[in-house]
Amino acid sequence: MSIERNNVLPAQKELERQQEFIDSIRKQNDAYAKETGRQKKFYSLAMGCQMNAHDSEKLEGMLTEMGYVATQEESEADMIIYNTCCVRENAELKVYGKLGWLKHYKKEHPDAIIALCGCMMQQDSVLQTLRQKYRHVDVVFGTFNLYKLPELLQTRLESGRTVYDIWQEHRETVEDLPQIRHFPYKASVNIMFGCNNFCSYCIVPYVRGRERSRQPQDILQEVKKLSADGVKEIMLLGQNVNSYGKTLEEPISFAKLLRMVHEVEGIERIRFMTSHPKDLSDELIETMAELPKVCNNLHLPVQSGSSRILQEMNRHYSKEDYLLLVEKVRKAIPDITLSTDIMVGFPGEEEEDFLETLDVVKKADYSTAFTFIYSKRTGTPAAVMENQVPEEVVKERFSRLLETLDDGIHRLHEKLLGQTVIVFAEECSKQDSHILTGRTEHNTLVHFAADQTDIGQFVPVKLTENKTYYMIGERVTGE
Ligand code: 5AD
Ligand code: SF4
User: Fold this and answer.
1) What are the residue boundaries of the structural domains of the chain, listed by start?
2) pLDDT tens readout for residues 24-37
3) CA of 47 to the centre of ligand 2 (A)
């Protein structure tokens, strides 16, 4: 028997097994609804990155199949699930804060179930704290066994005891979990899991494990299914999409995968993230330039502009390498927009290093940036580095960084004023249902007045006002 079949069979069996738990909980919840006239509700919170947001769509899909209905009001939920993040300390503090509040909630609602999962749960120190101080939590699992939620919940309901199930490594990828999509017309698809890069500040490789790519045919099947459901825009997700497929039994490049996804009828826009600058291949740049459905927008995290700091970060490129790469990409795709991740306050960062970061910001001309203050993560090499930068210095640099970024983004958007662009209308504004929001191919966020029938459509919008992080426009109607 081939290794491939060995992998597939248990995963399918596992899916069937979980389905049995789903059916059993559904029966209990249906009986409860019949008896009380009230359906049980779940509150789901995804913290951190797009991976987590996407994982939560699967958790929510499973909970819905178990007969729970979603609520935005935590204080009326029977089932509360936090998909946690540990990339920065703030995200962890937020979870502990919420757990404090939940202690009271649980006193008033002893039958409510509290579940915690995701990256934070992969750390022993967190589990210890939970066991000692937060014993009102009911179900705890990690990043490798998300699909086991139904079984763990059933065990909790039967035993009345807290259930901990944390795996230290990946075992099998269970495909085809039910999922609730947050948007009807756009969707994310995981193409790989984990990360092998070990940037010296980052906890992700320790909590999400080694890099694993999904089979291209599984990805394609999922994209085709989404397209049949009406999805027009796909975001391909991975910590480092540029190394997609390298470790598959039949290796394939990310560029080839893009070509395959490009063939899927009904999909009109393709985006992807994240690209590590060290692995961005010429093949990928050429493929992006060639394929019309692949959006001319690239997320290329720089982290720092100082070659010395980049080396300490274990990023495997210098400031010059990065800027040359930007030049190469712009030459191949002149209208491309770039976004990035930038960190301030990495250990040992001096004023001159920070000035190099500002210099890259000015030269790279980013249209968006995710900015972070370095957060010490126990277990990473950077946590034990000397010269941690004092907080007030970091804060002052951070605000200068934002100023420089804002200037650049504002200037970039100023050039778009008066242009008519095609916007993929995604949803109506939360404040005003007559205002729709959407994005251009270049990922510019646009707000414009239009009818809700435009949602899910590609519509022409004339850009009239520049609000730095987004633009206001007028829907152009056909003459
Ligand atoms: N502190 C601050 N930011 C971090 N990131 C990753 N680890 C840390 C950390 N310890 C940022 C990086 C990465 C993004 C997802 O999160 O910029 O690209
Ligand atoms: Fe973290 Fe670096 Fe991997 Fe990104 S590439 S997840 S920053 S280790």
Assistant:
1) 11-165, 181-295, 297-415, 420-475
2) 999 999 999 999 99
3) 17
